[in-house]
Amino acid sequence: MCCCCGEDCECRPLGFLLGLPFAFVSLLLSLVGIVIWIVGLVLSCLCPCCLCVTAIVELALCLIKAPIHVMKWFTDQIPC
Predict the structure, then answer these.
(1) Quick count: other Cβ atoms within 10 Å of Cβ 63?
(2) CA-angle at 41, arms to 40 and 44, nearest 5°
(3) Of 25, 22, 30, 27, nearest to 73 (Cα)?
(4) Which pLDDT band, with edges at 50, 70 and 90, does 1 fall under?
(5) Helix %, strand %, coil % for the chain, to 5?
(6) What is the pLDDT of residue 10?
(7) How far apart are CA 35 and CA 66, in angstroms?
(8) How far apart are the first and last CA of the chain?
């Protein structure tokens, strides 16, 4: 329940604003993740038997999704 209007609200603007600097940092990490992902895909095409490249690609995908996870976490922590 929202403390100001009595309705269920999913928008939580305070959590969004507090999470913006951290989302910016994770956005930079996701750009690094994109580069790692592209290099990992090229390496996995050259040598598909190398399992460490698959782990690196999975790590890169986690880095790419980081800004979304950070913003969700921050908005969930702060009440409406």
Answers:
(1) 20
(2) 85
(3) 22
(4) very low
(5) 75, 0, 25
(6) 64
(7) 15
(8) 8
